[in-house]
Amino acid sequence: MKISVKIFPWDIPCEFNAENCTLNIGDTVIVNTETGNEGAVVQGINIQSDKDVPSIIRKATSTDMETIERNKEKCHEAVENCRKLASEKQLQMKIVGAHFSFDGGKIIFSFIAEKRVDFRDLVRNLSKKFQRSIRLQQIGSRDEARGRGGFGVCGREMCCIKFSGSLKSVTTEDAKAQQMGQRGSERLSGLCGRLKCCLGFEADQYRENLKKMPEIGKQFTVEKRIGKVVDRDIMALDVSIEFEDRSRKKINIKDLK
Fold first, then answer.
1. Domain residue limits at 153
2. N or C: which terminus of the chain has fewer CB atoms within 10 Å of its end residue's CB?
């Protein structure tokens, strides 16, 4: 049985084998990573995948859970200290979160930055303060939103969480193809401040339909009257034809001649 698990709050789920182990979504397991053992939360079960992936070590025991909870309790203080040191050094970066490794020997700080940041002195100071190995990992605004969780204006769980790992990048061209380019950034942006992931769901279908539709301004004869296309309903494949007397008629493109 293959499962997907999330190791870091800001990261996308990754896959592991979990043979001979009864698991439910939300359970915690112990997995081996490049940096050592980590606790991870199960996000999906019976994942259909052909990837050759490693196996989990075990389902977390009560002792494991106590260790994980103790590490989580230290994160808030660690983040505050990191933010203070970054501010003192006037580094243009936003410290988002912290993660203590399962064995407690390493701390990973996630951050957002618009430009490249030289944080070598910050790492040295953090290592001295916490007496642990320190790693700073730059993430994107969508990764931050994924880590914090929440719901979009649609009332559903954010796409970056619900469909994590399967979403393609969204561009302004996707919004334009859906005739949404003029709606303003506030209406097109998600909680992360970037274009809403859902704009990518139907963009390809819009582009395919657009290929079949006449351009705005093209003239047609409808019911023995000449009119021009003034509006298009791309998903319905309908166009609005305006005549000389300013009257309009909606008609499907299959009925145009």
1. 143-204
2. C
